[in-house]
Amino acid sequence: xxxxxxxxxxxxxxLKRFQVRLGFAGFVVLAAFGVLFARFxxxxxxxxxxxxxxxxxxxxxxxxxxxxxGLITDRNGVVLARNDSAYTLEIYRNQVGDLExxxxxxxxxxxxxxxxxxxxxxxxDESKSADSLPIRTRLTDEEVxxxxxxxxxxxxxxxxxxxxxxxxxxEVASHAVGYIGRINDRDLExxxxxGLLARYKGxxxxxxxxxxxxxxxxxxxxxxxxQVEIDAxxxxxxxxxxxxxxxGNNLVLTLxxxxxxxxxxxxxxxxxxxxxxxxxxxxxxAFVSKPxxxxxxxxxxxxxxxxxxxxxxxxxxxxxRALSGAxxxxxxxxxxxxxxxxxxxKRSLEYSISxxxxxxxxxxxxxxxxxxxxxxxxxxxxxxxxxxxDTYYYGLGNDLGVDAIHGFLSQFGFGExxxxxxxxxxxxxxxxxxxxxxxxxxxxxxxDTISVSIGQGYNLATPLQLAYATSILANNxxxxxxxxxxxxxxxxxxxxxxxxxxxxxxxxLNPKWIAAVKSAMVDVTRVGTAARSGAGAKxxxxxxxxxxxxxxxxQGEKYDEKKVAERLRDHALFVAYAPAENPRIxxxxxxxxxxxxxxxxxxxxxxVFDYYLLGDKPNAPVSADEEGESD
Amino acid sequence: xxxxxxxxxxxxxxxxxxxxxxxxxxxLALGLATLFSAAYGNPARVNGQLVNIGVAxxxxxxxxxIPPQTLMRLAVPIYGLGLALLIGVALFGxxxxxxxxxxxxxxxxxxxxxxxxxxxxxxxxxxFQKREGHLGWQDWAAAGVLFVVPVGLIxxxxxxGTALLVAAAGFYVIxxxxxxxxxxxxxxxxxxxxxxxxWSVLHDYQRRRILTLIDPTTDPLGAGYHIIQSTIxxxxxxxxxxxxxxxxxxxxxxxxxRTTDFxxxxxxxxxxxxxxxxxxxxxxxxxxxxxxxAAGAATLFSRLLAGAIxxxxxxxxxxxxxxxxxxxxxxxxxxxxxxxxGTALVTLFTGIGILMSIQRNRKLVQT
Lengths: 631, 367
Description:
The complex is a heterodimer.
Chain A: H1 13-46, H2 48-59, E1 60-65, E2 72-73, E3 79-91, H3 99-107, H4 114-126, E4 133-136, H5 141-150, E5 157-166, H6 174-177, E6 179-182, H7 185-193, E7 205-209, H8 210-214, H9 216-220, E8 224-230, E9 236-243, E10 250-253, H10 257-267, E11 272-277, E12 284-290, H11 304-312, H12 321-324, H13 334-343, E13 352-355, E14 358-359, E15 368-369, E16 377-380, H14 381-386, H15 390-400, H16 402-410, H17 433-440, H18 446-453, H19 463-474, E17 478-479, E18 485-489, E19 496-498, E20 505-506, H20 511-526, H21 531-534, E21 542-548, E22 571-578, E23 585-591, H22 597-614
Parallel strand pairs in A: 2-10
Antiparallel strand pairs in A: 1-8, 2-3, 3-4, 3-5, 6-7, 8-9, 10-18, 11-12, 11-23, 13-16, 14-15, 17-20, 18-19, 21-22, 22-23
Chain B: H1 2-13, H2 18-38, H3 43-65, H4 68-92, E1 94-96, E2 99-104, E3 109-110, H5 112-130, H6 137-156, H7 160-176, H8 181-193, H9 195-201, H10 204-214, H11 223-237, H12 248-251, H13 263-295, H14 300-324, H15 342-360
Antiparallel strand pairs in B: 1-2, 2-3
Helix pairs in contact in B: 2-3, 2-13, 3-15, 4-5, 4-6, 5-6, 5-7, 5-14, 5-15, 6-7, 7-14, 11-13, 13-14, 14-15
């Protein structure tokens, strides 16, 4: 064998070379470890602060804690909007590759309806944020348990406990309260522009309509911040520190929900609106727009089918008729016209006309007909209101001129927004020469004034404006801005801040003339056009009926209610206040296609008053085919 | 009585080099403590590693009993078997994660490239021993073939990390055998010049690893995530570390593969620069002891084999720590004696066993 013994072979050049090479390798080892140590020194000493911060950033997430939204209650503490806690199933779209496949899988674990899918797709389109979006809301306990057992199969899908806005009374007062909905890209742009984005960190919802929208800044509150330790999967492990959120303020409404329910009930299946105002404060007692809708549908994104149904219904349930529906006020304008005649010295209480049943202007062949063929005989101011004589007002209007009418009636809020604290108000229309010139580039004709005098022609008013004007009259000229919120209440301390305690203006009116008009309005409900509705009342109340044409009648043609299709029938109107002395409630009512104010609208007012003043509950809604006196 | 004790000790522990063994045990202990932290709440990992250590120590003891002469006789069969298995993998191997590395031999699956980590230096050391004294250029060329074939097969799997380690082991033998500096310089230039070519044959994921090494932030959620998070772990450890079981990067699961290839990030986060220094010193002691053994070895075969094994240890440690601290690309190299894993431990302790055998037989006179 050729093995050698190394000790005797130290001079062997190969051994020598090996040792040199090994020494070189040792040097490389030292150098390499030196490089490593230098690197460690760099990372752990020189750059330590930087990496320490990085590790803390990894570890700690700053999570906004959304505030609880303020509650909405009626004046007696009945809850109209509250927050319920419930579980939702939410998907992080960025963490789920195949959304459809995942939803199909989820459907085997929890109940997912086609409408849930549609709604989810809508949410996907509307929101581009990386936040999770709910595929199902309000899971049952059983569904929560079933998903929890299968959660490992669904990365990027989570169960979340969330507070849900709930409107326990559903449709009741829906047009006043409104609803919240998920924050969409349009909302985000607006919040960004207003510099409010920070307030909405962690929040998913925002007021969209009604008081929920107009008092958004009060209701929303301020989010808090929590420092949470998270793991690499983003799961929160524990809270390190937190600043609690400031809950939104509660709204205590002027609304009386019991009255509201009565008013909605007596409306029956009619479309229309009713606004009841407390004249001494401007507080809205009832705010009805029929038909209503269930605001709970909107909170988490309405499914497209239901949305289409609501949106395309001929009844237009989403229209807030009470403040955005502009209708010709018809004869309900007459008390204000009469007051204008007295205040502006164009009429005295004694002055009377002999009514032939029509009015004509000198040199004009057109005849403006009274609603009663053959006329009312001798008519003074009192009678003109009680029996709603058109001819009297044709003449009065002609004597006043449109600009005087405009000037006087605008004091009662016609033609301008009342400034109510619910979104979406329309100003109606109170015409003037200037307006017509601006709008149509046309001269005002004397004939235009004749129609305006009985609330037709260019005139348009919202039911809210009718109620407002009536409340000012009932309150002898002292005007309070209509408002639905009585107090804003701090959710933690219970401190209350009153809304609108001061009148916006006081009209300079002669008490004598007010008394005269009011007494005529009381007689309307005793012996006049609304006598049937006033019959047997245990209190005196004032009112005025009105009828607004939906289709224009040709000259000489007679309107026959029975022959006209339901949708083309006249709108019925009624304004009223009660009791006659020291009125506590004033209202404006519009019943679409109801026919006459006396038959469709006035009975509603009577039932609302009976309930509000006496506590009498109505037993049936007003029926449409009650035959009654005419306008 | 004392004779019996001495006899037993000699019979069972005589082959064990106390210095080498003690250093290895200290590193193993540090590794277990780190593993306990990295796998916190998962005691199965620690228990599994204890079993791995038991098996590896038994293997070490067995190998330490084998005299170098026997090892020499085994060199060719082992290398041949390893090569045959590699060819088997290339033809019938199982594809796992896009790479053909495993061979199913009925009972279990084996990774033949692992065998080559020992077989390669064994074979080359045998070869140079055979040709000792009259090395011509043909011999260097033959050594080159023995070197290139298995490395090429492993690189083709593809398993770049193991190919590099096997190549390193082979290279150390050739280097220590006295490959001329001129030739090495020439080879270096050729390799350098062919890098663009190599780039073109690299797999996408391999290119990405190299690119993300240069700038990890280009792919923070993909390939760069490992490097970014492990660098944060190391850097945030600071001078003295966050303390055992206190590493936030570790315990909040920001460090991927924290019980295996990236366990050094855990160690570094919890024990800091001081801990890193201690570990480097321990590795240096291990390597130093190995070099002493190599320098004192009886034959060229033993010298070359011992030297290559020691330098392989160095390579594993350097590449792993370099990768975790972000100065080397991410290749699948475990931290020797620390990372979880039975195969790596068995390979390492086989090497240590060989070193012990060489140490024990350093003065043997062969007749």
